[in-house]
Amino acid sequence: MKIATAAYPLDWLESWNHYEDKLSKWVSNAAGNGADLLVFPEYGAMELATLDGTEIAGNLEASIQSVSDKMEEAAALHLKLAAEHNVHILGASAPVHAGFARPVNRAEFYTPTGQRDHQDKQIMTMFERAPWDIAPGGPLKMFDTTLGKIAVLICYDSEYPQLARALSEADMILVPSCTEALAGYWRVRIGAMARALEQQCITVMASVVGSAAWSEAVDEGCGMGGIFGPPDTGFPGTGVIAEGTLNQPGWTYGEVDLQAVHHVRRAGVVRNRSHWDEQETRVKDVVNHKLL
Fold first, then answer.
1. Cβ contact 82:74 at 8 Å
2. Is 200 helix (H, G, I), strand (E, B) or coil?
3. Could you tell me how far CA 276 lies from the centroid of its own chain?
4. Mean pLDDT of 224-238
5. What residues contact residue 263 under an 8 Å CB cut-off, 6+ apart?
6. Domain range holding 185?
7. Domain assignment of residue 195, yes or no
8. CATH number of the domain that 125 lies in?
9. pLDDT, mean of residues 104-110
10. Do 65 and 97 meet the contact criterion of CB atoms below 8 Å apart?
11. Of 165 and 280, which is predicted with more confidence?
12. Which pairing describes strands 37-39 and 94-96: parallel, antiparallel, or unpaired?
């Protein structure tokens, strides 16, 4: 299959039609290049707050409500585009009011047959904890699709091996991200590549890029698209299937074959995924030696 993963700039939107036109062009371009799966980044939906003006878009709490109020309409647009172009789409995540004590960071997954489901972020960054006060949401999920078994680890979640281990049956783990500095981008990329190595799967990273000075939450984005696999049989020696250009908006495309995932898990040079539990016996008793 062919994957398209986004380096996505946030725009000041003059109208809902402006947003529809933008998203339609992005999806049309990816589908026109043969993509089967499209991945948008974390907090890419924050641009919807601009539809309510400068004061709302620039206010942390008010922008949450603004974006949350628009996500059902955004979902309808994504479903329409997924069906029209026969593609699966991981939509840009958004802070949404979803019945928890505080808003959660939620990414919606859409199929061309009209189905949708979501993945909530599990572990909050320092900014999400305070001052934004975004809460951990519902549990990790596995999406069993016609493209394979797909899971999602939103940004910071990709830096935690145990979360990925819980998803070890996934063929692909999607990693939508929003990072403001090069160090943040590389933390998430290193996490995504490490998870591909450990669970012997494909990981797909999308990024917010560019300036959005109107927002305190997503004022600067640094990153690029990337598609990674285990550096082993059937994959590039670097583990990098495809990568974009830093901070350049657009799609990054990569061809992947899930048979390569199944093969490397069964007959790879190393077997990290199947040998995972051997760690438990080796770390049970740590022996301290004093060397003077």
1. no
2. coil
3. 24
4. 97
5. 233, 234
6. 2-277
7. yes
8. 3.60.110.10
9. 98
10. yes
11. 165
12. unpaired
